[in-house]
Specification:
With 151 residues, the protein is of the alpha+beta class. The protein is built from 5 helices and 10 strands; from the N terminus they run E-E-E-E-E-H-H-E-E-H-H-E-E-E-H. This is BRO family, N-terminal domain. It holds the Pfam family Bro-N.
């Protein structure tokens, strides 16, 4: 995992990492402390999905939780700091991760007398179905779709 933080919430560092699939992972103890949970393990047991918790392989492994679990802890937070934490999460952490390369980019394509828009997003090119039909020939030339359900 790559560290994209630490970020600071009210002066307290909260380590944030990204996994190879782009998921954000947060230091569970720091999140629980920022949200005023007295016992981070109890808070995770009560509010977090097990699939969204990772433990490292260091000498003293640090629990990391995914964004869904951070939101769950924030939602169930007994402290008045939950709203402030949620605002920090959205406006600082998530906003910093939405760089230009992660947004779809529009391009113009002209081929065979057709002008169309294509999107470049997440390393793939996207084309509207109607444009694909125009490129392959008239709709009448395409094979009909059998409306019967496949057994």
């Amino acid at each position: 995992m790559n560290t994209v933080g630490p970020f600071h919430f009210d002066g307290q560092p909260i380590t944030v990492c990204t996994s190879i699939d782009g998921r954000l992972w947060f230091c569970a103890d720091a999140v629980c402390s920022a949200l005023c949970y007295g016992d981070s393990q109890a808070a995770m047991l009560d509010h977090c999905r097990p699939g969204g918790i990772l433990f490292g392989n260091q000498q003293s492994p640090q629990a990391m939780i995914d964004l869904c679990n951070v939101l769950q802890l924030s939602h169930h937070c007994p402290s008045a700091r939950a709203a402030q934490f949620h605002e920090w999460l959205c406006n600082r952490v998530l906003a910093s991760q939405l760089d230009h390369s992660s947004k779809p980019q529009r391009h113009q394509l002209s081929t065979q007398g057709h002008h169309m828009q294509v999107l470049r997003w997440q390393e793939n090119w996207w084309l509207a179905m109607q444009d694909a039909v125009q490129l392959s020939g008239s709709a009448d030339e395409l094979l009909p779709i059998d409306p019967r359900p496949v057994p």
